[in-house]
Amino acid sequence: MKSQEHPFAQFHFCPKCGSAEFELHNEKSRHCRACGFTYYFNPSAATVGIIVNERRELLVCRRAKDPAKGTLDLPGGFCDCQETGEEGIIREVKEETGLDVGHTKYLFSLPNTYLYSGFLVHTLDLFFQCEIHSDEKPHGMDDVAETFWLSIDRLNPDDFGLESVKRGIRKIIEEKIV
């Protein structure tokens, strides 16, 4: 179930001065009456890797951790500070599959929410087509239980646990993106 709770519902104190006089300013921000700081809540950037081999199979992962433990996923994750989306997807693919990405191409983005340790993180998921060295063999690492190749013709969006990845898989199928 996707929660529509505004992220500000979890923030009660000013991140600059710690005051409880941290009030809703508008639908995008809170303002502190004590120090004058206005905080705009924006989504966190995350990446998703679309890796297709010469047999038109998509590299999929099985999630080792919650949220959606045990469901299918695509390699990716949160961007680090001072990191581009391209750098983020290259790092995440390496961390989760052991594969080295040689080239990336931005495809599209989708908004999402991601429940992390009971905290609802709003994300903007950046989908990238990634080219890898064809002789490499993927293996599950980090928060991935396993990796395997799945024919694009056999993709079922409902097998994927995260909402934006489900929508991304539907978009790939319907628009024949890869």
Low-confidence spans? none
Overall structural domain count: 2
Indicate the percent of residues in helices: 10-25%
- Classification by helices and strands: mainly beta
Number of helices: 2
Output the CATH topology of the largest domain: Nucleoside Triphosphate Pyrophosphohydrolase
Name the CATH architecture of the largest domain: Alpha-Beta Complex
Radius of gyration: 18 Å
| Average predicted local confidence, pLDDT | 92
Key traits:
178 residues; Nucleoside Triphosphate Pyrophosphohydrolase; four-stranded mixed beta sheet; elongated; 39% strand; mainly beta; three-stranded antiparallel beta sheet; 2 helices
Structure explained in plain terms:
The protein is mainly beta and 178 residues long. The chain has two domains: 7-40, no CATH class; 44-175, Nucleoside Triphosphate Pyrophosphohydrolase (Alpha-Beta Complex). The protein is built from two helices and ten strands, in the order E-E-E-E-E-E-E-H-E-E-E-H. It has helices spanning 85-97, 163-175; strands spanning 22-26, 29-32, 38-40, 44-50, 57-63, 72-73, 76-78, 101-116, 119-132, 144-151. Strands 7-4-9-8 form a four-stranded mixed beta sheet, sandwiched between helices. A three-stranded antiparallel beta sheet has the order 1-2-3, with no helix packed on it. Strands 6-5-10 form a three-stranded antiparallel beta sheet, with no helix packed on it. Strand 5 (57-63) and strand 6 form a beta hairpin. It is elongated. The two termini are 29 Å apart. The mean pLDDT is 92.
